[in-house]
Amino acid sequence: MKLLISILVFLLASLRPVDKAKSTSRWVVSENSMLTVNGTTNINRFSCAILRYPKSDTVLISRDKTDHMVLSGTLNLEVKDFDCSSTMMTKQLLSTLKENRFPVLRIRFLSLKEIPSADQRSFVKGDVEIMLSGVLRKFEICYQINVKRGLIELTGQQTVNFSDFHLIPPKKIGMLIQAKDQLVVIFFLKMERVG
Q1: What is the pLDDT of residues 70-101, one digit of tens each?
Q2: Contact of 90 with 48, CB cutoff 8 Å
């Protein structure tokens, strides 16, 4: 009888569902990644960009116990790497973003609604937290994802406001030129699978 109970316990234990959270893949962000911020002033448009990502941050993709995709990891961007193609505008932006007190812009991935299959381009939504100038905000972003043989390219854009982060838009030459509150953040992340 003890043998029969032992066999039943073994069979029931072997029928337990596999923990899907363990199927995690690791992705390293490539230096070809970039972030662009587009805005307008009372007289023209401006664009500031971080054109290279010199770090090697890792992003993890897995499934949680409810079978939802989890995209986790943090990108740490140096605020001083923004270039506005104008020394004065770059200096104003860095001052506005309080670069001397908060030198890093952090983007933390929280989730993805789904992951497309290999060799496929599609649109998905995901949640991120952005820490800028000491203020943390959560956004839902729509990504275009291109997956192909060990590479993932994430492209997307998100409208944010300086005021979302308790910042006052930059001013140039006194009050004559002033940036508007709204910005469009465009990003391109290229990630390579590890292992």
Answers
A1: 778 888 999 999 999 989 889 989 999 999 99
A2: yes
Residue 41 is which amino acid? T
Does the residue 97 lie in any domain? yes
Give a yes or no: residue 1 inside a domain.
no
Look up tokens 């820490």; give the residue. 131
Q: Answer yes or no: are the C-beta atoms of 15 and 7 closer than 8 Å.
A: no
Taking only the tens place, the pLDDT of each residue in 134-170 is: 999 999 988 888 877 778 888 888 999 999 999 998 8
Full domain range(s) for residue 32: 22-194
Structure tokens at 9: 């316990």
What's the CATH number where 168 sits?
2.40.128.110
**For every residue of the chain, which 3-state class applies, written as one string?**
CHHHHHHHHHHHHHCCCCCHHHCCEEEEECCCCEEEEEEEECCCEEEEEECCCCCCCEEEEEECCCCCEEEEEEEEEEHHHCECCCHHHHHHHHHHCCCCCCCEEEEEEEEECCCCCCCEEEEEEEEEEEEECCEEEEEEEEEEEEEECCEEEEEEEEEEEHHHHCCCCCEECCCCEEEEEEEEEEEEEEEEEEC
What does the alpha-carbon distance between residue 187 and residue 53 come to, in Å, rounded to a whole number?
Answer: 11
